[in-house]
Design brief:
Layout: H1 4-9, H2 11-20, H3 27-63, H4 67-103, E1 123-128, H5 141-148, E2 151-152, H6 153-159, E3 166-167, H7 169-189, E4 193-194, E5 200-201, H8 203-208, E6 220-221, E7 227-228, H9 233-237, E8 243-246, E9 252-261, E10 280-290, H10 295-313, E11 317-321, E12 333-341, E13 346-355, H11 359-364, E14 366-369, E15 376-378, E16 380-388, H12 389-399, E17 407-408, E18 422-423
Parallel strand pairs: 4-9, 8-14
Antiparallel strand pairs: 1-11, 2-3, 5-7, 6-7, 9-10, 10-16, 11-12, 12-13, 13-16, 14-15, 17-18
């Protein structure tokens, strides 16, 4: 949610931020609605004052025995009461229209975010690790998994339809091992608090992190009206909704590994084979709640935490600073981590770490009380994948594949695999 005060005082900055995302200026429409709403509120105040004044005159007139004047004032009060009721309904309607308009406008990029419309304008920040060299024909992850007899897309389709998979045996354990390794790293070394949140949430929770209303078609909703979470960012960030925190309690850092559910309505025809884009997948999420002056540093810290996962797994990757047009709806600045997939001969996204400033906090009414006497202010929120478990498995399978179709287990995961060093065919 945007700060109306900023739009009123600096509409050119607001529109410039939208232009960086490739959007038309919206301040005239927003300010017109705001002006009408404020005029309505002012009129209501005038009517309420007039009603109160007239009510006082009724008593005075009756005290003097002037019944005619009392009746006249009573008629005026009745008329004002009707006007006030209609005015309040109008004010609520205007407020709802204004909130709806603001709720569909994305966050504004920070000044150091590069301009651009899509991923072709993203800027590489750094590249780490060395791509492995293979002396045999490479297989993609789904060829390896199916060849091992441990990755079954046909069974997933039989149970649930397209974009589902059944993992079994050592691959099911590998998925669990990757998640456990990530959680241990983030909680034991990086100070995140592990949370096990609900997977079903209310409308207002999805609205708080900006999945609603704009991206309703990308979500799964139950018949009871609850939504399946598309990411643990949703419940973790909303832990501070409708709260006033003490500054001394910040930063708060949360992590969770949850199933995530996405309809992928906007991804038709993309990555139709394999585990890159499923309707259900596991992800370790990182969320930080901080004061405004610490949010920029926290983004760098969070990104480094996600990078450390890739370093310890021995997976080559690069860090990309996203351009304004490629960022997520709620983000002001985003780093993508892209892992090397040798069979695709390409880097593919495995994590996005985003700074949202107070955009989500305003939607959630998440605030803190500053110790410097500046009163109550909105917190800043950040979120990032630390990492997507399924895509990490894809990267492990492709980078650690061997000539006979088996897959070496990265050393850091072997303790979580009961000492297993190689995943071999189930047949």
């Amino acid at each position: 949610m945007h700060d109306l005060k900023l739009i009123r005082e600096q509409p050119e900055i607001f529109d410039a931020g939208l232009a960086a995302r490739g959007l038309d200026p919206l301040s005239p429409q927003i300010l017109a609605l705001d002006t009408e709403r404020r005029a309505c509120a002012t009129q209501l105040q005038d009517w309420q004052k007039a009603r109160n004044d007239a009510s006082k005159k009724i008593g005075a007139a009756k005290g003097k025995g002037d019944e005619a004047a009392a009746q006249q004032m009573m008629a005026a009060v009745a008329d004002l009461k009707q006007r006030i009721q209609e005015g309040e309904e109008r004010e609520r309607a205007l407020q709802a229209e204004l909130d709806a308009a603001l709720g569909t406008i994305p966050n504004l990029p920070l000044e150091d975010v590069p301009p651009g419309k899509d991923e072709t304008s993203n800027v590489e920040q750094r590249r780490l690790g060395t791509a492995p060299v293979f002396g045999f024909p490479l297989k993609e992850h789904f060829e390896l998994g199916e060849g091992l007899g441990l990755m079954d897309f046909a069974a997933g389709a039989k149970l649930s339809g397209a974009r589902f998979v059944v993992l079994s045996g050592a691959l099911a354990r590998l998925e669990r091992a990757i998640a456990a390794f990530m959680l241990d790293l983030h909680t034991l070394e990086f100070g995140y608090t592990e949370v096990s949140p609900p997977l079903l949430v209310r409308d207002e929770v999805m609205y708080g992190t900006a999945q609603l209303p704009k991206f309703a078609d990308d979500q799964f909703q139950t018949t009871t009206g609850l939504w399946l979470i598309p990411t643990a960012e949703v419940p973790l960030t909303n832990l501070v909704r409708d709260s006033i925190l003490a500054e001394a309690d910040l930063p708060l850092r949360f992590t969770a590994c949850t199933p995530c559910f996405r309809a992928e309505a906007g991804a038709a025809g993309r990555d139709t084979r394999g585990m890159i884009r499923l309707h259900q997948f596991s992800k370790v999420e990182l969320v930080s709640i901080v004061t405004p002056e610490h949010s920029a540093v926290e983004l760098e810290r969070m990104t480094a935490c996600a990078e450390e996962v890739l370093k310890r797994l021995g997976l080559p990757y690069r860090v990309m600073l996203l351009c304004a047009g490629d960022m997520g709806f709620a983000a002001r600045k985003t780093y993508d981590l892209e892992v090397w997939l040798p069979a695709q001969n390409a880097f593919r996204e495995i994590s996005s770490c985003s700074l949202c400033d107070d955009f989500q906090a305003r939607r959630m009414q998440a605030r803190y009380r500053a110790t410097d006497g500046k009163g109550v202010q909105y917190v800043h929120t950040l979120n990032g994948s630390g990492l997507a478990v399924g895509r990490a498995m894809v990267a492990v399978l492709e980078n650690y594949q061997q000539a006979d179709g088996s897959v070496a287990v990265p050393p850091v995961l072997q303790p979580y695999m009961g000492g297993l060093k190689t995943i071999e065919s189930n047949g």
